[in-house]
Structures are given as structure tokens and as C-alpha cells.
């Protein structure tokens, strides 16, 4: 289903990126802020839930984000880095993304949860493929599919099956989510040389970068089908 | 300790309370609603945090509540009970407690976090002592000290050492928290016969009940000392 990137060859996995590359701390700090920002946005957006079950599902997802945050904090601690000051520099990109994609309905909140989580996972797993195994393992376990967002699929599918207007509205909404995510990802890369260098110094470098955003759009389309929005 | 517990048999209890006492499901449902309510209150009150570190501490505590909720949901599922409808009947008592104790400052939020968590733990651990081991184990592991609220102590101590006015204000505040907690606990017991029966049918019964609220006040005083509020 997912357009999984080709399995990394041994040369790529041990691609010459050192575990003490300065970009690694930056990547972990960026992920850490992303988890905390997602936590607070999920709990904020849960206000729109029509019932207790919806609020509980959102709270469970939010709790999973904090568990991930704690893994990243511990990984940074082992590398001698204090997570809070390190992550602060990524606040603006992530807060901007969330501010520019504030849902106005519960269905928009659900779609954002599903699509946003998936996009973040795509983005970070692509980067993980070019990292030393030890670092990639941290990234992969943080982003491991928890199944928490599966409750979204049935609810969105039911709503868009019942209403073409909802389908069109949510399809536009999800395109906007993708656009803002790409914009903010580009801002982050433009501002943080260590991160760009981390990706560049891996096997494929620039080719990987240019193909990456294409792949992101492709996996996004797959998810639109899953939600009944294609 | 966790490896293959003996098959539950209602007669095999030291407390004289059967594991299929109807009050057990009620207790788990009450705890479950308490966790979800605490989750949303902590994230709400975290808005008053003066900095990112404070918001992260509150988010970590909130995430721990949801992990506890998931343990209770699983325990109820094993007993054939759907958690969401079961917990709804405890909404009003817990929401009333939180509504009547909405903090107006970050320090009040911190004290509420610490005292509220501790009172809930006292309350449920007292009940656990009178339950069959198998049920008591669930209650105790849900309420296991996570150490998440320790960050509160230093911050409150510093504030009340610097200001007598703060000390008096927060001492009054914590007395109000205790009062509202006891009031709501009494409402819950008055409305839910199965819970009263669960406590009564244990070893000490009524004596335990009358002594319980005294002990609650005593442990509360201990905590006031810890926070520098005594």
C-alpha cells in the first residue's frame, strides 16, 4: 500500500554519516518539539469531539506523542544534550504549521490527525534510511505505527460517503495540510544547515532530496484513497 | 510478580470480597473517568505555565494519566465491560471537582496537581487494601508513584519561601482542594451503592470508613509540609 522506499543497501545504511554528526542532535530536537506541539494540538482539537469516545481517542494519541517525546529526550540526554533549549529553535516552524492548519470542524481535526501524523512519519522515516543504524533505530521506534489513528478512517469514510460536499471540502483541506507541511519542512531545512548536511552526506544526497517531495505527494495520495477523499 | 497469575477464583480472596463483586467494575470505571478528566485538566491548566519546561512537565503527567486509563480499560475489557458507557456515570462528580477547583495562577495549578494526585492516590489505595489481591494489584499499579509530580515541590517551595502572601494564599487553596475532594467523594459514595458495599464488605467496614477521612486529612498535612505550606 505505502510506496515504501527501496530497502537500503548496506552501503547506504553505513553511508558515511557519523553517529556524532551535529545534525543528529538537531534531528532529535526537531522531532522532540514536533511531539510536544502535536500533544498540545491534539488536546486542543479534541474539544471539537462530539462525544467522550472521540475525546479519549485523541487523548490516547496525544499520550503516545509524549511517550515518544520521552524517548527522544532520553536519547539526547545520552548524547549530553539538554532537550528543552535544543528544541526551542524549532518552535516557530512547528507552531506555524499548526496555526496555519487549525481545523474548524471535528472532521477536519480527524483528517489533520491522520494526514499530519502520516506525513511526519514519511518525512522522518525517509531521513532515517540515510542514518547510521544506531540513530535510525531511535527515529524508527519513536515513529513506530501505534495504530492510534486508525479510529479516524472509519469515521471520515462514513462522513464522506454520506456527503459529496464533505468529500470535496475535506479533499481541499488535506491538500492544504500537505502544502503547509512541505512549506514548513523547506523553511526548517533552509534555516538549519546541519540537517541539510545530514541528509546530503548520506548515500544519495541531492537526488534523494529532490525525489523526496515527490514521494511525499505519492504517499499522501495513497492516504487520501484510504480516507475516501481521492 | 507479573508472571502467570493463578486463575481467578472468587473464593480465593483474603479480604472476603469476591473478585466478581459488582463494585469492582464501578471502582475501575470511576478511576478510568478520573484519569481522563485529569488528562484534560492538566493540559488545560498547562496554559498557565510560564515556559516550555513547565508545559512539558504537565504534558508528561497528563500522558501518564492516559497510560493508567488504558490499563483500566484493558482490565474492564477482560471483565467483559465496555469502559466508555461504564465511566460516564462518574462524569458529574469529577467534572464538578475540577470546575470548583479551577486554578487562577500557575502556582495554584501546581499545588492542585500535586495535592489532587496525592489525594486520589490516598483514596484509591485505602480502598485497594480491602480488595481481593487480583483487583488490588490493578488499582495499585494504576496509581503507582510515577515521580512525575516531583517537579512541583521545588517550584512551590521556592515561591512560598520568597513570599508569605503566597504561602497563605496557597495554604488556603490547598484546604479548599481537600474540602472539595471530600465533598465529591461523599457524593460518589452516596450515589453508588455498589461502591459503598465494596468498602463495607471488606474486613473493617464502617470503622474503616469513619477513620478514612481522618487519615486523608493527616496525609494531606504531611504534603502541606513537603510543599512548605504548613
From TrEMBL, chains A, B:
Write down the superkingdom of origin. Bacteria
Among InterPro entries, the record links this protein to: Ferritin-like (IPR012347), Ferritin-like_SF (IPR009078), Ferritin_actino (IPR059125)
List residues of the Ferritin-like domain. 23-200
**Disordered: annotated span:** 1-21
In terms of Pfam families, this protein maps to: MiaE_2
Q: Which SUPFAM superfamilies match?
A: Ferritin-like
Q: What is this protein called?
A: tRNA-(MS[2]IO[6]A)-hydroxylase MiaE-like protein
